[in-house]
Specification:
This protein is mainly alpha-helical. It has 8 helices and 2 strands, in the order H-H-H-H-H-H-H-E-E-H. Helix 1 packs antiparallel against helix 2 and helix 5 crosses helix 8.
């Protein structure tokens, strides 16, 4: 909205207000295309500052997409529905379901007491397939995800891993249910 407001004011020759992007800049020598580029740069800078603010939600997603320009410049980078579920810990992972009072346990079918995105993506022996070359690495006690969404091919492979993960999870869950109820 702010981007549109600044464009509107500049296009019609209205004065910018103190809280508008480009308020203190000398735009006299810039043509309309150059002004639009400057507005976009300001928008991305503002967006990145908000995204880097640790007090905001989205910290899990920030680990995979630390730079907002990735999403802005690649609007069709190919996420399936299961991909974001895996990367954010939403969907049918037991820790998420338990938090929402939709499951009695946080445990993973592998026996780990906490089935969240980090466990599924990094340590669960039930799901560790197809992650080679995707950028998931253990560094000491921490995990890094550098470049996991670096290009279309890695994104496509990660979406395949996510689809397979939730397919296998459904299979484990239905087997566990049959054993428990049988």
């Amino acid at each position: 909205a702010k981007q549109l407001a600044v464009k509107y004011k500049l296009k019609r020759g209205f004065p910018l207000e103190e809280n508008d992007w480009l308020y203190d800049e000398d735009l006299e020598g810039l043509n309309w295309e150059q002004r639009k580029v400057r507005i976009e740069e300001c928008m991305l800078f503002s967006w990145q500052n908000r995204w880097d603010d640790d007090s905001e939600p989205g910290r899990v997603t920030h680990r995979f997409v630390p730079d907002v320009t990735f999403i802005y410049r690649n609007p069709s980078f190919g996420f399936s529905m299961m991909g974001p579920f895996l990367l954010t810990g939403h969907g049918s992972l037991n820790a998420f379901l338990h938090e929402k009072a939709l499951n009695d346990t946080t445990a993973c079918a592998c026996g780990d007491p906490y089935e969240d995105w980090m466990h599924v993506l990094c340590t669960s022996p039930l799901y560790l397939r197809g992650l080679d070359g995707l950028g998931v690495q253990r560094v000491g006690e921490n995990w890094t995800f550098e470049g996991i969404l670096e290009d279309q091919e890695r994104t496509r492979r990660l979406m395949q891993v996510a689809e397979e993960t939730f397919r296998r999870r459904r299979a484990f869950s239905s087997t566990s249910f049959r054993v428990a109820s049988g």
